[in-house]
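Run folding on both entries below.
>entry_1
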Amino acid sequence: MPGPYRELLSVPGARPFVAAGFVGRMSMSMVGIGIVLLVSAVTGSYGIAGSVTATLSLSYAVGAPLSARYADRYGQRRVLLPLVLANTASFTVLIAFALAGMPAWTLFPAAAAAGLTQVSLGAWVRARWSHLLRDSPTRLHTAFSFESVVDESIFVTGPLVVTALATGVHPAAGIGAAAACTLVGCLAFAAQRGTEPPPRPRLPGVRGGVFRNPGVVVITPVFLALGMVFGAIDVSGVAFAQEKGHKALAGVLLGCYALGSGAAALWYGARRWRRPLARRFLVGLGLLTAGLVPPVLVGNLWLMMAVVFFSGLAISPTIIPGYGLVERLVPQHQLTEGLALVSTSVGVGVAAGSSLSGRVVDAYGGHAAFLVPLGSAVAAALIGLAGSRALSKRELSSRSIAE
């Protein structure tokens, strides 16, 4: 492990909460697929399965920023313990209803409850890093890079695990394992009291959430568009591999994309950067857009694997400064809420990108669907450029206040 990361994990208390956070957020890459595999197996309908998954995703997008706001206000442990118990109960009810053959409509309130009680644990982990490294911006940059590597590893391994369990063991095994990861990881995370950020009650005269922050108003739709890129790439990659007669290699194709992002995150986090975060964020958006042009032009599956690896190299150098900007622009008493908001924006974007790309696949084929992630990246870059002045001004003002 490179020196900066070894030094990072030597921070007192870091290893336990990093390990707990990894286990607890494994489910973020497992829940959607697990529900589809379970519900489609017991109902025979992918339409119902997709609708149940969409219900959970939309509920999660509403609930995660709210739970993060309360974590900022009252403390992570105090909020997380009852929330994760409610989440486990909700998933248990969902699984029980599905296996008992209950009417399809009963699955929707259970999925909504599971989504509302699902936390954006990655945001909570990043908030801990911000607390521990508040006096060391360089090491905080490394920490956010490290967390991007963790996210990529989760999105590579999670779908493989849940699919193997649901198809090889029992249709409910995949979603059951995801819920168990959430429970075990969150309980272990809550137990790490020494690294927990102190509660930050709402300041007198301060009203509303993080959307009153102009920087967040710019970053949130950018992250939503980036989520559309990721969701569309998944669907387009699977459809493209199937068109070429190698559907079994779809996972390898998507893994090359994630591998490129993970490699870039390791490199990016080990460097010391002097350029402002806002400028790095905009450069990343430009490189990400440029990197998504070649997949539209390539028609060979084996060449596509190499192409998407290089396309993935721009993901982490975009996401990492994006999270860094949130950490810089959002007041400390709203930090977890701000980080959770952009994380859930990505989730909503993934759902939208998957749906849009699926429609394009049905109408024009898998290769044409690579236009969807390209168009989404263009939208993200244009929004970022339109709000660049606001981001730069906010970053400079927050830096001067910190100094």
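>entry_2
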Amino acid sequence: MSQPEPSELPDPVPLYGPEYKRDPYPLYARMREAGPIHRVLFPSGVTAWLVTGHEAAQKTLADPRLGKNHDRGNDRWRARASIMPEPQHSQLQVHLLHQDPPKHTAMRRLVTDAFAPRRVEGMRARFQEMADALVDAMPVDGGADGGADSADLVQCFAARFPFQVLAEVIGLPPHLARRFRREWGKVVAPVGPTDPGRPAYEALLRELQGYIAEVVADRREAPGDGLLSRLVAARDAGELTPEELDSMIFQLLVAGQEPVTNQITTAMVNLLRHPEALARLRDEPELLPAAVEELMRLDSAFELTTWRFLAEDADLHGTRVPAGDSVIVSLCAANRDPERFPDPDTLDLDRAQGPHLAFGHGIHFCPGAALARIELQVALGTLLARLPGLRLAVPDGELPWIPAVLGRGTSALPVSFDRAAGCPMGRG
């Protein structure tokens, strides 16, 4: 079948702007009520088909007709999508998120043991040590009355804890972990060819590639029993190409930490908006596992999934979608579907939790889900226990929500808290 001209397609719904990023849920509710799939527009000018309802989202994420490989994208998508330039796209974008079976199956098998629930649970005590050390070293600004402190939880904690945990889990040695720059994580939001920020973006890409090459050389010269060493050994045994190895390390270093950073911020914002829930969770830490699930359902750091494509024109939830057009699922919209979760906009620590979609669904379900759950339990439990009287230090409306297309979180989280007697936190 021939593809319809753009003029024959429905007008796309814009998915960008400060108000949308601050609170996308009213728009998602209107879209859900109107139907399960909608044509949407992103800031770069690229359009996509967005799936919103919980049932439709589950079916879409498990639909074998939809593939993740960028080669499936049509010329119309490719002309607008701000994908990485070459040669970096071919060298860094052939990781798990952009693979289909059987390659996806083989590559995923290489990482599952490192993130197995029993293994990461056995590291919980070590993660707790890391979280406590970050709070102990937290630089804070004392209040004028000497009775309160303030700090940015992103800078002091949320941007650091997930990377420290990740380095421990995958076997990134300390001398290399110390040299990782958080700015490199920004390369997952490509900058278009005509954007004035393109040169700086490409410089970050080259720096990150150089760092990945150092990691590979280091793990080859001094192999250990960590995941990075096993991936390098798999490459040397011919199980991975050089590009696949670099791409998997890229995915681990970037996708393995930034979503947890963002999820810490969304969870804390929602707890700070509901002080009664925050107080209850502080007093009843045994509720943390269930609370983490509810907080992820309420406001997921993975707002939208990455691209999926149909190989040929096909019906998707009653709408004809052209081959090679991008299909994206709104995990946030699905997780607030009232047909699946009664009173979905309410934070309910006693909710009889059903399966939310914060980690996706189907063969691309996040392999690090067990680790992320433990990280969030430790992070939230530590912050609530160690920072008494925790509250926002700025009006809610002034929180800076990240402008990322697919992710959700705040770039800063200024808070105030009461000084505790004998508090060991740093003062400088």
